[in-house]
């Protein structure tokens, strides 16, 4: 039986500023390069894709950036989100560890993605953009952007990775209910999509869906492109998660020894970890930050820290990041939000310099952990979140063996109410774990662009 404790913040404690970790890093992480000339991107070149307000945030070295009041008003629909002490889970695991989880599934679309969708639409609308295009992996980002576009009366067009589109039909209904147009990627409406279809690519990948959305946005100045993870401004917007968690730990009179989040592009990890890393970087308490990725798409643990494109066709700027190569097409795992070949440059830099650690988990282990968590806590985590849950169970088990009463902070990025087909495959025993042999990985790493910068 659960006797969970909840740490709730009052609406008045909703953060007023986002935190920019660049201000506290010892040096500035490498900035993007032009995809063909390999020279630093100019502001003018960047505005063909992103709104100026967001580009200013990407380039900013200011420590705090004020959250516009319109954005805060919309955040109030679901923020501040709760922090729970998972007592039932602790008992189930018979661990001396204290486990807390921050739950982002209370948002209008069921994940943390809306934290950045709302400000992105706000800044695009301010720049005169009438319609936004985007890609989506699991459908979470597409749904979040569709919601935010509906709030501001901006059009929304989504290219959705084919393999996930087929797995989660109800999330399409949600996107369409918010007024968005949804394409299965590869689609017949872009040059990129038609070429991929002709090549016999049916499953698609996030990188390919990015290429389709970017192609359409580049063709029309009234159309902008929004991205759901990896960019500096996305991680910036997500820091409301960590800022709230810091206040909630003060209420609990406790402090995490380790924090854990899954990583696809790294936005939830950055959002949770950066405010805690600020404390560490500015002389406050130490903390371990653990990023958990799928073994099917192991950018941090088996990829290379190199210059690479954000999309499969090489249309986006080059970013210095951990990557398994932009041509990589991962297995159709159910954690669609973690099937991205690259990683946020900020998370990549933090990992490269030892500020965060990483581990990879297979999907069956993750679903096993997810159902244990659900039985104890009454929340069915999204397949992506299960990766963090699995790593949390490992930490708790280690505490049981050593008797160490550590404090663990787990981020549950979303719920699985639109991902039940994944849990069904898990129960049916049809969920598989494919190996990723070194030779296969190497064929993609060998295709990384040669940059002499
Ligand atoms: C998109 C998504 C992720 C992965 O993206 P990050 O940018 O790494 O946070 C994780 N969990 C859920 C529920 C998602 O929708």
TrEMBL record:
<feature type="domain" description="Tryptophan synthase beta chain-like PALP">
    <location>
        <begin position="77"/>
        <end position="414"/>
    </location>
</feature>
<dbReference type="InterPro" id="IPR001926">
    <property type="entry name" value="TrpB-like_PALP"/>
</dbReference>
<dbReference type="GO" id="GO:0004834">
    <property type="term" value="F:tryptophan synthase activity"/>
</dbReference>
<dbReference type="GO" id="GO:0030170">
    <property type="term" value="F:pyridoxal phosphate binding"/>
</dbReference>
<dbReference type="Pfam" id="PF00291">
    <property type="entry name" value="PALP"/>
</dbReference>
<keyword id="KW-0057">Aromatic amino acid biosynthesis</keyword>
<comment type="pathway">
    <text>Amino-acid biosynthesis; L-tryptophan biosynthesis; L-tryptophan from chorismate: step 5/5.</text>
</comment>
<comment type="function">
    <text>The beta subunit is responsible for the synthesis of L-tryptophan from indole and L-serine.</text>
</comment>
<protein>
    <recommendedName>
        <fullName>tryptophan synthase</fullName>
        <ecNumber>4.2.1.20</ecNumber>
    </recommendedName>
</protein>
<dbReference type="InterPro" id="IPR036052">
    <property type="entry name" value="TrpB-like_PALP_sf"/>
</dbReference>
<dbReference type="InterPro" id="IPR006653">
    <property type="entry name" value="Trp_synth_b_CS"/>
</dbReference>
<dbReference type="GO" id="GO:0005737">
    <property type="term" value="C:cytoplasm"/>
</dbReference>
<keyword id="KW-0028">Amino-acid biosynthesis</keyword>
<comment type="subunit">
    <text>Tetramer of two alpha and two beta chains.</text>
</comment>
<keyword id="KW-0822">Tryptophan biosynthesis</keyword>
<comment type="similarity">
    <text>Belongs to the TrpB family.</text>
</comment>
<keyword id="KW-0456">Lyase</keyword>
<dbReference type="InterPro" id="IPR023026">
    <property type="entry name" value="Trp_synth_beta/beta-like"/>
</dbReference>
<dbReference type="InterPro" id="IPR006316">
    <property type="entry name" value="Trp_synth_b-like"/>
</dbReference>
<keyword id="KW-0663">Pyridoxal phosphate</keyword>
<dbReference type="GO" id="GO:0052684">
    <property type="term" value="F:L-serine hydro-lyase (adding indole, L-tryptophan-forming) activity"/>
</dbReference>
